[in-house]
Amino acid sequence: PPRFRPVAPPPCQWSGAVVCSDAAAGSKPFLLLAAPGSRADTPARSLGFGVPQVWSAEVAPARGALAVAFRAESAFSAVNRSSQVKLMVRPLDGGKALADIPVPPGQEVPYGWSTPFASGHTYAIDAIIGGKRYHVDDVRQTRRRYVPALRVVVAISRVGSKTLLALEDHQAGAPGQAARPEGGKSVFQVDVRLSQLGLSFIEEVPHTREVLYVHVDLIRLELQKLSESDTRRLKFAISDIQADCQLPGRVDAEGLNHSLGLLRHDRPAVILANCGHGDRMFLKLVIEQSATSSADIMIPRAEVAMDKLDVTIDDGWVDPLVNFAVQCCASPGNRGMRFSAARQFAGTSAVQGYSPPPLPSVVQVEALHIAKLQFTLWCGLKLRSASFLPAYLREALRVLSFSDELVLEDAPLTLPERNVPLHRGSLKDFLRGLASEYTMNILKYAGHALGKSSLLNLPRVPLRIGGTTVSLLTDTMGFVAGEAASLMDHLTFDEEYVRRRRASRAAKQIHGFSDGVHEAGRSLGEGIEGVLDMVKKPAEGWKAGGLGGAVVGAGKGVASGLIKPISNVGQAISDVGAGISATVGPNSANTQRRRARPRAG
């Protein structure tokens, strides 16, 4: 890692390492100790040497590059506003004192540390007040301390862009001078509630029309400040949300044709809504933050939870919404650079006229928990019109769906819960990283959803013509085959096997043809294993009762070896029948819930 030192006198030692990475984004103050042998006529001296200097290294990520700048300043300063008590600041690195920096009355003096980029660095100092040492573990934490022996107050707070340590004379009754009693507890709370909120998205080109209406129920914002732990807690919750496409051709629960189903290709007006499973809220966000004087966003703990969502995606609203977004973000007259203008820069140094980008907002998250995300998807989207998706994502969906159109019907998609480890870096990069990770998770866990996609939807349309009849027929056949298999299980004379088969049938979850085929394959596999009983049962009988036990075991083995495969074939027929019934039969509970929703408002 690079190190630096200023060229201008007085001479000083090289700085500690400057870490150039996204995680090190922000400004770090360096205390540059004086070079050995140098002396200066000033009371500020590094321990054993001369005058220390304070510089800051600023690391700013910008479009994949890192800009590093060095400035003779610091985001940490001390000021002595006391008329009688002297103040000195002693920065500590790993508990080791670096320098005693006097703070003259009425002056603001910067300070820093020798290795602020080091892993595990703590922003610790000793404040020498009237000759007595007062230790501060972390000057980034906002605090106020009354020193009764000297009748002064030490306050650390955020002032503008700096963290300021101030020493002030205590004045009884003066505003802001009241000291909090030891062991005192208080809670400051602000509670904001909105019963309903509606947002309309209206485009004006080519003509004025409402594209989307979003209706939100019961919004609650609660902010607490706890004096006991000196923390702030933010709670934000939204009870329900529903988004309606307001374009022509959309129908709600009153106008939707339930009998013809897919043959009408009805497009519902409600394109997004939460399900309210177990009285869960659509969104619940909890953030805890310690009182801090740092410019960084410090989040010791955060939790995010969402309700299950029903989502409908189709060209009928995606294309107009993308066009609406383009109209909102369009910036005419700033669409690139002419070649003649670019040619003027040929042969010119890239750093000529360059100025470092502004420092980004830096976030430090110690613990972030994101609960499991669940979606039920209905989709009819032509991939060539999904220009808002990255090219690699469109190609991946094209390969997985075997076509240029992605069709999903009542497809579940579940993203597992996530515990984000300790992170520090640019807020924009942090959010971009989370979005990228969830995009990859969507591709990773999309296999189950794509099991109900374009490839399996092809045979569904002809099957829907007689959906109810076919469902009744397959249900009846499956029931007969299942009961026959259950009866034959008892003829195996294997009570343990009968109990396992009963538990297996009770645990089956068949919601479509692919589920039925999967369960049928398992049943056939168990039937093949039953053939091995012709060998296993005599061996078990021999061990238990000798020759007589072997004869009895052989009889059980023959019965089991013949009956188990037949029984499992019957169970496989029942599984396939249940799968066909679920595929071509009446709508699932998810589909019925989706069709029953009226427009909001």
What portion of residues is helical? Answer: 25-40%
Rg computed from alpha carbons, rounded to a whole number of angstroms: 35 Å
Instruction: Give me the secondary-structure category.
Output: alpha+beta
Oligomer category = single chain
Mean pLDDT: 76
Biggest sheet statistics? 11 strands, mixed
Give the CA-CA distance, first to last residue: 59 Å
Count of DSSP H/I helices: 12
Shape: extended
The overall strand count is 30
Portion in beta strands:
25-35%
Low-pLDDT runs of 5+ residues are: 40-49, 176-183, 258-264, 454-477
Commentary on this structure:
With 601 residues, the protein is of the alpha+beta class. Helices cover 30% and strands 33% of the residues. The protein is built from 12 helices and 30 strands. Strands 15, 16, 17, 20, 21, 23, 24, 26, 27, 28 and 29 form an 11-stranded mixed β-sheet that branches. Strands 2, 6, 7, 8, 10 and 11 form a 6-stranded antiparallel β-sheet that branches. Strands 9-5-14-13-12 form a 5-stranded mixed β-sheet, with no helix packed on it. Strand 16 and strand 17 form a beta hairpin. Helix 8 runs antiparallel to helix 11 and helix 10 runs antiparallel to helix 11. It is extended, with a radius of gyration of 35 Å. It starts with 25 loop residues before the first strand and ends in a 6-residue tail after the last helix. About 8% of the residues have low confidence.
